[in-house]
Design the sequence.
């Protein structure tokens, strides 16, 4: 193979695969596309087979305390006969009323409602959206309707049932709870131990304090949009027009569904416009995000002249979920927003060029739309966030904490990250240079498998496992090589007898 000084990017790796397979489809775009897919498949497989080859990143999440009513009269009731919406019995300006967050941070959190006829029973709901009406009175839309005959004087709690683990984590190395200058290491507890200890019961587990245990909860996901966005031109005469400063070019669009958001400190770094001096709500990290929609057809904006803006059509998710009747309290309060991503494949620059972009073939975040919005306009004024590429999220893993946090804490997770797909020929896989051969062998396995060549696939498998074994000895541990030590003869120790009534300790 090539010397270690040679930079192995996607294009060079693909060429090596072609050379080793004695295959030269130089003019076949389809062959290039397929081998690129096989290379990415091999990267993901190596991330599972050898996570110690990949980057270890720090992830920060905020853990919020449970929220309870502020006073005995701070209760909830069904709002205007719509059982998908509860409202505060007190005005939100009342000193005895708890302050609800209406900035989307509570979207997706668990609302516990006490059964009026059985105080030992609590009913669990997901908060869709929180807002304040004109009274002013807090309104809370729910994921399912309140079914009890009693619709007033409802006792409640908002709990932190679980926290979302970043979707690109494939191996957790450590978890540390931070408060001020102090660190509290978290112990990862198995699901069976958590269930036997009854700490997973949200209604009965009311212990609060500094969390010490962390355990797996149920995975969560949002449905993937199926509607393909349609891109049309909106002329200057019709109230559109490309205003910039984004240069023209060829663009494609897709979108995702999002629900809730993390706290304001957890947002993408890029500004919404070139002139922005503050962060924007459109750039906040969502609590949940779906897989992307199908990709739109491409549209081109010229370098100069009377240029139209681009109108991207979107579905009405509020209507789809039954939140589309203006006569109901839940009207347009489904809590789901749409996040728009744009991909640039060409840049049209005037002469002389005003700016020059270093773009690739990825989709990047550019805007957000409400659930009921049927379109989103791109006129060049919004800047894509190149720090926020589209992530193909299948589902989220969630974790619970014990005890429940008694205040806000930050948790730092050190974990191996799932590698991002290699898109452009210049993209480099996130592995050491001496691991590229192993990646190529893994790619050849997939290639020969697709050709039906079992013998060559087996040869590539042997090469892959041999290379992986060598890499494990080199990169698998930072500890020095073990030395052979002469062990002394062990002394005979008295055997301890455990009596039936003596408790046994269990290492968690």
Sequence:
């Amino acid at each position: 193979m090539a010397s270690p000084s040679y930079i192995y990017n996607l294009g060079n790796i693909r060429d090596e695969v072609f050379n080793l397979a004695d295959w030269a489809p130089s003019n076949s775009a389809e062959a290039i596309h397929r081998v690129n897919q096989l290379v990415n498949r091999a990267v993901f497989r190596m991330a599972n087979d050898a996570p110690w080859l990949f980057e270890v990143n720090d992830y920060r999440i905020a853990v919020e305390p449970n929220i309870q009513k502020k006073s005995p009269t701070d209760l909830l009731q069904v709002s205007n006969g719509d059982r998908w919406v509860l409202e505060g019995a007190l005005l939100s300006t009342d000193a005895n009323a708890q302050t609800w967050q209406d900035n989307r941070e509570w979207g997706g959190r668990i609302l516990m409602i006490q059964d009026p006829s059985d105080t030992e029973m609590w009913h669990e709901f997901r908060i869709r959206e929180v807002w304040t009406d004109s009274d002013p009175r807090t309104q809370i839309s729910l994921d399912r309707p309140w079914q009890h005959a009693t619709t007033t004087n409802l006792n409640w709690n908002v709990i932190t049932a679980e926290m979302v683990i970043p979707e690109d984590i494939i191996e957790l190395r450590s978890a540390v709870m931070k408060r001020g200058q102090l660190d509290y290491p978290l112990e990862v507890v198995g699901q069976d131990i958590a269930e036997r200890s009854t700490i997973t019961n949200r209604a009965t587990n009311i212990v609060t304090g500094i969390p010490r245990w962390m355990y797996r909860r149920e995975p969560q996901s949002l449905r993937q949009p199926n509607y393909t966005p349609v891109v049309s031109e909106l002329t200057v005469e019709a109230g559109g027009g490309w205003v910039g400063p984004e240069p023209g070019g060829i663009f494609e669009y897709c979108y995702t569904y999002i629900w809730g958001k993390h706290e304001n400190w957890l947002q993408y770094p890029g500004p919404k416009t070139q002139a922005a001096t503050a962060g924007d709500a459109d750039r906040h990290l969502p609590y949940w995000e779906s897989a992307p929609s199908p990709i739109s057809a491409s549209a081109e904006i010229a370098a100069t002249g009377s240029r139209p803006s681009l109108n991207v059509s979107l579905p009405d998710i509020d209507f789809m979920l039954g939140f589309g009747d203006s006569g109901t309290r839940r009207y347009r309060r489904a809590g789901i927003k749409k996040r728009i991503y744009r991909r640039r494949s060409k840049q049209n620059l005037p002469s002389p060029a005003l700016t020059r972009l270093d773009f690739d073939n990825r989709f990047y975040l550019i805007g957000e739309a409400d659930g009921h919005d049927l379109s989103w306009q791109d006129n060049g004024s919004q800047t894509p966030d190149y720090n926020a590429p589209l992530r193909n999220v299948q589902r989220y893993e969630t974790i619970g904490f014990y005890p429940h946090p008694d205040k806000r804490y930050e948790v730092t997770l050190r974990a191996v990250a799932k590698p991002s797909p290699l898109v452009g020929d210049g993209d480099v896989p996130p592995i050491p240079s001496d691991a590229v051969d192993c990646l190529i062998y893994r790619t050849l396995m997939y290639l020969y498998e697709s050709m039906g060549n079992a013998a060559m696939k087996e040869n590539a498998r042997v090469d892959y496992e041999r290379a992986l074994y060598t890499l494990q000895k080199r990169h698998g541990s930072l500890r020095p090589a073990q030395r052979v030590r002469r062990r002394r003869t062990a002394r005979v120790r008295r055997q301890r007898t455990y009596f039936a009534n003596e408790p046994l300790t269990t290492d968690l």
Summary: DSSP finds six helices and 26 strands in the chain. The chain has four domains: 10-54+422-475, 57-63+173-219+401-417, 76-154, 231-389.
